[in-house]
Amino acid sequence: MAKRDFYDILGVAKNATDDDIKKAYRRLAGKHHPDRHQGDDAKQAEEKFKEAKEAYEMLSDPQKRAAYDQYGHAGVDPNMGARGGAGPEGFGGFAEAFGDIFGDIFGGGGGATGGRRTGGGQQVYRGSDLSYAMEITLEEAAFGKDTQIRVPTWETCDTCKGSGAKPGTSPKTCTTCNGAGTVHLRQGFFSIQQTCPHCHGSGKIIPEPCITCSGAGKIKKQKTLEVKIPAGINEGMRIRSAGNGEPGTNGGPPGDLYIEIRVKQHEIFERDGDDLHCSVPVGLTTAALGGTLEVPTLGSKAEIDLPEGTQHGKTFRLRGKGIKGLRSSYPGDLYCHVAVETPVKLTEHQRKLLKELDESFRKSGDRHSPNAKSWTDRVKDLFK
Ligand SMILES: [Zn+2]
Ligand SMILES: [Zn+2]
């Protein structure tokens, strides 16, 4: 059976916010919870519940959602690739989908996501993801850039060796959760597992916290990270640096660092996918007589042969002078839009010449003005 679209399952739009997705899932989970149905009905409800749960798990994870948006089910199907594995078998599915942008840059693919539980019952949490906004120029987006960023990192506290307890004392098992890190709350039909509010999931209480780290067991520092911005990257894209987010809890894996790309507005060019557009001012006489026009390209120059009688708004396409996108085989094109300029600040002599020219034009009717001619004809038709 074909898999249903995750957005359809949750009944939300493709551009739904995280909050919308969460609300839709909660509503469905409540409606289809197996505890609320009996007999055959219960079986169907369970299927629906599972379906909603899967859809929610995919769409609430920014990485998985991005992969799903771009590649559909193939992008997130765990059967199609080894998630969390970076070995040679880790191709296909998610790993492949993001291999070129995430993998190359930091030399390590994969990266585990989601929490898991240890055999001891203590909740293991993956660290939070961090996000870093980076502004680059259009040239850097087009040609790539090697740069460094300063990001927070956490080191094990030397004083307490990571235990969080003052030297000479030791952490005690939390009495609220008996060391499990979680407590169960009953709310109507549901039994909800929650992080223990007393020990915040660690399962331990530190009676005398270490002074150096205030009981955290780790100290926040700064580190420098080499970042390779790949050529062709575009506004809004994210680069993942696996494992450079916040550290996990109870030995859980660290989160990831996401570098979000913002591209500064360019003085000359506007980007549209792989294509570039620019406006080129051309003098009245050059447009009329024709000539060679030098135009800028990204990082270089090119020439356009302007034919005699070039009109305002005429577009010249320079093949391959656009940007080669991350996943493109060929670069896009550069479109130069001619903007004919009316001369200003005329001298007496120039004014006289233009008047003479004007008289000469009038003598031969409107044959020198192709647009005006067809416009006059259309106006005439209107009043027929
Ligand atoms: Zn300490
Ligand atoms: Zn506890």
* Spatial gap, N to C terminus: 65 Å
Characterize the largest beta sheet: strand count, sense, and whether it forms a barrel.
Answer: 4 strands, mixed
Query: Overall 3D geometry?
Result: elongated
Looking at the overall shape, the CATH architecture of the domain at 270-382 is Sandwich
Q: Could you estimate the helical fraction of the residues in percent? A: 25-40%
Contiguous low-pLDDT stretches (5 residues minimum) are 79-121
Oligomer: single chain
Please tell me about this protein's structure.
This protein is of the alpha+beta class and 384 residues long. Among the domains are: 1-87, DnaJ domain (Helix Hairpins), CATH 1.10.287; 270-382, Urease metallochaperone UreE, N-terminal domain (HSP40/DNAj peptide-binding domain, Sandwich), CATH 2.60.260. 29% of the residues lie in helices and 26% in strands. It has ten helices and 17 strands. The protein has helices at 6-10, 18-32, 39-59, 62-71, 73-76, 93-106, 138-143, 284-289, 348-363, 370-382; strands at 116-117, 123-124, 130-136, 145-156, 172-173, 182-187, 190-195, 204-205, 218-229, 238-241, 257-263, 270-272, 275-283, 291-297, 300-306, 315-318, 334-341. The strands form seven sheets. A four-stranded mixed β-sheet has the order 12-13-17-16. It has a three-stranded mixed β-sheet with strand order 3-11-10. A two-stranded antiparallel ribbon has the order 1-2. α2 runs antiparallel to α3 (39-59). The longest helix is centred in the N-terminal third of the chain and has 21 residues, at 39-59. The protein is elongated. The termini are far apart. Mean pLDDT is 82; it is low at 79-121. It binds zinc ion (2 copies).
